[in-house]
Amino acid sequence: NIMEPSKEYLFNHKGFYFVTQGATPENIDALETFEIRDSDIFIATFPKSGTVWMQNILNLILHEGHRNGTEDVENMDRIPWLEYNFRNMDYAALPSPRVFATHLPYYLTPRDLRNKRARVIYVTRNPKDVVVSYYHFTKIMSSLEEVSDFSLFLERFLAGKVMGSSWMDHVTGWYSHAQDFNILFLTYEEMKKDLRSAVLKICNFLGKQLSEEEVESVVRQAMFENMRKDPRANYEKMPGHREEDGKCLFLRKGTVGDWKNLMTVAQSERVDEVLKKKMESLPIKFIWDI
Ligand code: A3P
Predict the structure, then answer these.
(1) A Gene Ontology MF term for this entry (predicted)?
(2) Atom 8 (ligand 1): residue with closest C-alpha?
(3) By CB atoms within 10 Å of each CB, which of 72, 78, 141, 207 scores lowest?
(4) How much is the pTM?
């Protein structure tokens, strides 16, 4: 069945698809009682929604002023993945404030996040750009199954048969449980439109006071072209690149509306139809182009 993802790449645990590299059912279960600190920050996203971008922004806001000789440390080591501990880090030994990235659905996150002290930043992106970005990503990540036909990938995406499961369920779940968390929602599109305002919103949420120059510096370094040139931000050393040179792969295009270059009108309408059916009740307005 072409709709079924290969078991070599994905496994389903508690109704959610994880990649087989780096996660096991046992460590996912253990996350429920993962001990969190009030100062912890979690970046939660559906894949391809701007996770790395937010990782870099938080790194810049929290650390850039005092890297203290750790300039070579990559974003992935500063902000590890909660459910994929690629580097076997001891999370309990990390200094505060710890920042984690996660693709978990709201219902699989550490139980104590619901005490609403630790912070969550949830980034969404319009699903047409997400699926197009995702499709390109499967070609470069060896941990993902490459699906060469876009229309098949789109069907798997809409059916939730990809890492991260259903985009609709992920977003709907986090939005409709917002009151259970100390959470800030941001969209990829608003960051793209006005990065400075987004940075200020984040600083405000974190209770972090930056000077005007520091804000400018964060914004400058978080712009697509500058991040693309920064190996720490662009995950150049991430294991599993299919391509030999391993360069500039995480940051591909970084635009809003790239879906128009790949999707047919029929495919776009197919997405609209599914969204209408599944998400009409949510107060989310998608931005398809800017
Ligand atoms: P594209 O494939 O459309 O270029 P994630 O980090 O969740 O995997 O998301 C990756 C997407 O975010 C990629 O989208 C990538 O280019 C984009 N991205 C990363 N940093 C960005 C930045 N500074 N500005 C705009 N887009 C960025």
Answers:
(1) sulfotransferase activity
(2) 48
(3) 207
(4) 0.95
